[in-house]
Write a structure and sequence with these properties.
This is Sodium-dependent transporter. By secondary structure, the chain is mainly alpha-helical. It is built from 19 helices and four strands. It is globular and about 65 Å long. The two termini are 42 Å apart.
Length: 463
């Protein structure tokens, strides 16, 4: 690595920073609406199985590659096998694309946090508030710029003083806040105009109980695609971020323990996020409120907070501040992956690279933010959906490139360099990698097949 002095202070600093990358918009924005869309408990069951198998394998692989090669993603794969140079380029391009829109979503969250802090909770609950905001070029652009600049400032400060320090502060606050709000959501009760009473515990049942009667092959494949894309997005795997973070991990850190802690923390927060959001929406909006899709956080939730009475604005303020923390730690990790690669490629200092990237992505973030107004367009995607600029970038990076990277990476590790190449690094500190047999089996036989199916589905070949 170019910046050899960069490293996390120890295992706790690394785990919190990696968890900060993993716990983000994917948990608070994506996870609840995917769960609601895919039948609640059915999605949860499949997701949990995939986290314990594929999530464990993919995260272990990325971290071990980073620490063993001491190179960022664009050169790490090439050092494993010269023929895999293209895989490093693809892995580098994923955060490059994600960074184009992550600050835009962060800006949306910042806008709502400001609205609740300044006493505009009632206005934020109006039907047209979100659409009015994202279609206002000046306002949407301003909040994207503010969020992008805040991210760049933290990355500019470096690994230990910037990324780790930020994560150590934000992650405990986020965890406490999400537990308190989830507990409050389960205590809610509401009687509508028809005299029907709905409770948070009933909403928990909607969230947690799988309905196997709905399960068909097509439904299973859709849930599988959604759950795997959520794992990519949530655990920050197959996008070079964890390879970069692996470079900063000291040799005496127990990677096996770290992987388990990161997976557990990320899954726990995701489950709590669903427990916080879905029961509260069910209480005040019934099943109709679940149909909001990606707008669940920005349309349905403010209405829920408005229905809570005097305590609603305070709960809403706590939620959006917490969501802002989560989005920021993830956005930092995406920019750090790009920064570290550029430092290595151009042999440049962190300060110089961060300044240039900060300017470039501030401009790009504004363009993407204006994709709902000045640059509005609708493009049909191969998976049968339509999307604007933000959706296109998300589809290319998350639904297409990540399964391709995971497929190629599984073939490289499983059949070319062999699984023991990863296992040796996981056991470098003297610990024993648990479930070695599972790692070898999945990376060689299961991952290539599943990733191929996801690729075919993402490209519209298998629907």
């Amino acid at each position: 690595m170019h910046e050899n002095s960069s490293s996390f202070s120890g295992q706790m600093g690394f785990v919190l920073a990696a968890a900060g990358s993993a716990v983000g918009v994917g948990n608070l924005w994506r996870f609840p609406y995917l769960t609601a869309k895919d039948g609640g408990g059915l999605f949860l069951l499949i997701y949990l199985i995939l986290v314990m198998t594929f999530g464990y394998v993919l995260l272990s692989s990325d971290l071990a590659i980073g620490r063993r090669t001491q190179k960022n993603s664009i050169r790490a794969y090439q050092s494993m096998d010269p023929r895999a140079w293209f895989l490093g380029v693809l892995t580098f391009l994923v955060p490059v694309l994600i960074m184009t829109y992550y600050a835009v979503i962060g800006g949306w969250i910042l806008k709502y946090a400001v609205a609740f802090v300044t006493g505009q909770a009632g206005a934020a609950a109006a039907d047209a508030y979100f659409v009015s905001f994202i279609t206002n070029p000046w306002e949407a652009g301003l909040y994207a710029v503010l969020f992008m600049l805040l991210t760049a400032v933290i990355v500019y400060r470096g690994v230990e003083k910037g990324i780790e320090k930020c994560s150590r502060l934000m992650m405990p606050v986020l965890l406490v806040a999400i537990i308190l709000i989830a507990g409050y959501s389960l205590s809610l009760s509401y009687t509508d105009a028809d005299g029907v009473t709905r409770t948070g515990l009933q909403g928990l049942g909607v969230y947690m109980m799988p309905d196997f009667a709905q399960l068909t092959l097509g439904k299973f494949l859709q849930i599988l695609l959604d759950a795997m894309s959520q794992i990519f997005f949530s655990l920050s795997v197959s996008m070079g971020i964890m390879i970069t973070y692996g470079c900063y991990v000291r040799k005496d850190v127990n990677l096996n323990q770290s992987v388990s802690q990161i997976c557990l923390f990320d899954t726990f927060v995701g489950l709590l996020a669903g427990m916080m959001i879905i029961p509260s929406i069910f209480v005040f909006s019934g099943m109709e409120g679940m149909a909001a899709g990606p707008k669940l956080m920005f349309v349905s939730l403010p209405k829920v907070f408005a229905s809570m009475g005097a305590v609603g604005p305070f709960i809403g303020m706590a939620f959006f501040i917490m969501a802002g923390f989560a989005a920021l730690t993830s956005c930092i990790s995406v920019l750090e992956a790009i920064t570290a690669n550029c430092m290595e490629i151009f042999r440049a200092r962190r300060e110089t690279v961060t300044r240039v990237l900060g300017i470039v992505y501030t401009v790009i973030s504004v363009v993407i933010a204006l994709g709902y107004s000045v640059f509005y367009l609708e493009v049909g995607l191969p998976n049968g959906t339509t999307g604007q600029l933000l959706d296109i970038m998300d589809y290319i990076s998350n639904s297409c490139m990540m399964p391709v990277i995971s497929l190629c990476s599984a073939v490289l590790i499983g059949w070319i360099v062999k699984p023991d190449w990863i296992i040796e690094e996981m056991e470098r500190d003297g610990s024993v990698m648990p479930r070695k047999w599972l790692y070898r089996f999945i990376i060689r036989y299961v991952a290539p097949v599943i990733m191929l199916i996801l690729c075919l589905q993402a490209f519209g070949i298998l629907l």
